[in-house]
Structures are given as C-alpha cells and as structure tokens.
Amino acid sequence: MLNTMAGKTQIKIKKKSEFMRTLKQMSYNKLAVFGAIVFAIELILVILAPLIAPYGYAEMDMAAAYQPPSWAHLCGTDDLGRDIFSRLLYGGRYSITMGIFSIGISVMLGIIIGSTAGYFGGKVDNIIMRFLDIIQSLPGMLLTIVISAVLGSGYINTILSLSVNGIPGQARMLRAQMMRVRGSEYIEAAESINCSKFRIIAKHLIPNSFSPLIVQATMGVANMIIMAAGLSFIGLGVQPPASEWGAMLSGSRQFIRSSPHMVFFPGLAIAITILALNLMGDGLRDALDPKLKR
Fold this sequence. Notes:
The structure is a single chain. The chain is mainly α. It has helices at about 1-25, 30-45, 50, 85-120, 120-135, 140-150, 155-180, 185-190, 195-205, 210-235, 245-250, 260-285. It has a single domain (about 75-290), classed as Orthogonal Bundle (MetI-like fold). α4 packs parallel to α12 (about 260-285).
C-alpha cells in the first residue's frame, strides 16, 4: 500500500515538474511571454467589460455620431453614435470565445477520430482518412461558409461551423503522433497484461502524443478568430446589435474614407489578438521540443 501511495505521489510530482518545466522553457522566449501577457490582458478586459466599458455596447447618441477618438470616446464613435471602445470590449467576448470554443470542439472530436485511426490502423484508418480527405478537399473558408449558411447565423451556429472545419487537422496530427509511438515498448507491455484498448489509448497513447496538438490548438484559436470575423463580415456570423469584431468591420466598411477610425480599431483588435496567440504558439512549440530543453 505504501508503495502504491509513493508511486502516485511520484506521478503527480512528475506531472507538476513537467508543467513547470514547460513554463520555465517558455519564459526564455521573450516574445512568447509578451504574447501571453497581451492575451491575458485582453481576456481580463473582455471579462470585466461591464465594469470597464464607459458606455453600453448598444447605447446610441446620434448627436455624437462619427466622432474621432477623444477623451470622451477613446476609440471614437460609429455611425449611430455608439462608443467603439465599449463595443470592442464586449465584441471581444464573442470573437475570443468563438475561437476558443470552436477549437475546443475540434480538438475533442479530433482526439476521438485520430486516436481511433492511429491505434487500429488498417481498414479503419483507411476509411477515416479518406473521409477526412473529402472534408479537406474543400477550401476551409468555403466549407465554413456552406455549413454556416445551412445552420444559419448566430453565436452557437458559428461555433459549430468553425469547429467542423478544424476537425481534420487535429485528427491527422494526433493520428500521426500515435502511429509514431504505437510500437513503443510500454504499449507492448500494456497489451501483454491485457489492458483494454480504451485504457491503452486514453492512458498511454494520447498523453504521449498530445504535445503537438496543444501547439496546433493554440495557433488554431487565432485562425478560428479570423474565420469567425470573416463570417460576421459577410453576414453569416454573429448578427447586430452584437458587437463582434468582424461584424463591426462589416458595418463600418462603407465609412472607411470619411471615418477610418471605425475600421481601424476593430481591425487592430483582431491583429493584436492574432499576433499574441501566434507568439504564444511559437513559444509553446519550442518549450515542448525535447531538443531545446535547458
């Protein structure tokens, strides 16, 4: 019994030390730290939007329409006199959560599909891969537009349409990693003591194949945010009066010459978020690379 408890304690310490090692390795990458700080600040701002925003996101004042940035309106106002800074804070809730939730669904389904294909191989793998080939034969944005048009616009439907587009990439990544470690000695040892297939996949294969998936998911959030903004821009994503960043760009594109601030600030918010996530992804990839351990 004492040996069992000692073994569990050792496993917990090992997992904790691996997590701390990854954080320490990331700390050596100043750009990754900068990206993580920027993204953390964005998350805090959008979470605390009701407390920080000086105006309501749908509050209109036609007398203050088209105003440039000022102390009263830090990012100016739009054509309906709504404060753009307040709308950016509330809009970040839609844009960022759509990116996170859609990639989360993609990763979960990708794990199920990829682990099944990677472990069983043979005909099962061939059938699954050909099905994924069919999905990936369509351009990603086109597939997302088609699914969104079928499901209809809205927050939940946009997340679902985005997640379908991300499944093949996540499944292929996990499948490739699992096929690489499937012939390892610890897998043979687990099979020799009659471990169930589910236990082998869940306890041995997935944990040892998950690192590249984490990196791909981090960068995938950035891609999903861009695609969500694209859907809203063409009218298939989140609909007004919700202040999603892509919808803000779509609503202000006709004023790009007369009031460029209406386009500039939503575009800047998207660009900063994508840059921060990509810097984080690069740093995480380097931190999880065993060749770069310090």
